[in-house]
Structure to design on (228 residues):
């Protein structure tokens, strides 16, 4: 079946780095995505990475891709309380017109 | 503000009742989607419409029907609600297949929280 796996919870202290991991399934996925869901809201696109890249950096966010192991990670530097949310990774198999979302990781930032 | 609008935001139904969840987008997007979100299960696709005039089943279509009324609107209907359909429902839209515009992603509505008792 199609399962994109993430750990359910992560707790970090304010100012520390957070690393959220994801294992995806479809090696043909051209793009891999990270979405953020704040309480009571829909998902918002955070960043994405093309499958021929190993790393992408965008301000405090760093995305690492290990295509051999089908492993994706999102690192948030200097984590703030406003980063508390659920983070979803998603793969997008070409030609399918739809995402496969992971289970989501709830990040809690402690002051 | 431009975006995806879902109504209602909250709803309580009795088992066996029917209802329609409404979704409208004003971004001239071609594709629209309905997801349900359940704890520990992430988002699961119910139905989608790649373009106006077409609809297709997703992972969990049983118990639901959809209508792509026009380019803007995509509704989700529960004909006979069951407690297993208690969930948060999200509508989303995208301008095109993401291979062509990967940086845009999907735009999501704020969700409808449905409880079936």
């Amino acid at each position: 079946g199609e399962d994109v796996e993430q750990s359910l919870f992560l707790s970090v202290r304010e100012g520390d780095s957070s690393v959220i991991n994801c294992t995806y399934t479809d090696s043909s996925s051209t793009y891999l995505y990270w979405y953020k869901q704040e309480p009571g809201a829909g998902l918002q696109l955070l960043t994405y990475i093309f499958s021929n890249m190993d790393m992408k950096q965008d301000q405090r966010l760093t995305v690492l891709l290990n295509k051999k192991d089908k492993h994706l990670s999102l690192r948030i530097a200097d984590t703030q309380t406003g980063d508390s949310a659920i983070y979803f990774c998603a793969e997008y198999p070409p030609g399918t017109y739809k995402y496969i979302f992971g289970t989501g990781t709830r990040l809690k930032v402690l002051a | 503000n431009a975006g995806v609008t879902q109504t209602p935001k909250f709803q309580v139904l009795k088992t066996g009742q029917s209802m329609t969840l409404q979704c409208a987008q004003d971004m001239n997007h071609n594709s629209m989607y309905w997801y349900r979100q359940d704890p520990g299960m992430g988002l699961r696709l119910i139905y989608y419409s790649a373009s106006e005039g077409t609809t297709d089943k997703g992972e969990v279509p049983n118990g639901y029907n959809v209508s792509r009324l026009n380019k803007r609107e995509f509704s989700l209907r529960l004909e006979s609600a069951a407690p297993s359909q208690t969930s948060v429902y999200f509508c989303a839209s995208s301008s095109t297949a993401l291979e062509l515009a990967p940086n845009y992603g999907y735009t999501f509505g704020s969700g409808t929280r449905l409880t079936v008792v």
Summary: The two ends of chain A are 40 Å apart (CA to CA).
